[in-house]
Amino acid sequence: MLNEFRTFIARGNVLDLAVGIIIGAAFTAIVNSIVTDLINPFIGLIIGGMDFSNMYLVLRGTVADGASLKAARDSGAAVFAYGAFFMAVLNFLIIAWVVFLLVKAVNKAKEAVITQEAAPEPPKGPTQEELLAEIRDVLKGRAG
Hints:
mainly alpha, two-stranded antiparallel ribbon
């Protein structure tokens, strides 16, 4: 069993997966920063700074008027937190859009590199001196 475990760990797939998870975690931090620090402030300007995350309905219990969602939950009331759900969906859509744009940019850059590497070098033509020598030889043949 120990040998099987060693074989499993030594496979490249496990290492590739580990690297993918680590890169994914770092990528998540970048995407979250783009959404939180760059995109959400503009959305806040557009919707007038309205915060949906504290919108809820009290299903059972009593909550002070204007209490935050956290305060309502802490009071033990049963709340229907539709604002938090709406913000989670909105954040998901924004994050998905940012990931789409980043993947699209990376794919475009990768295609440019592949195209540049795969482009055949144009055939080299004769130099100016070679052309002149060829013309000279042709003219000599007519005159001779």
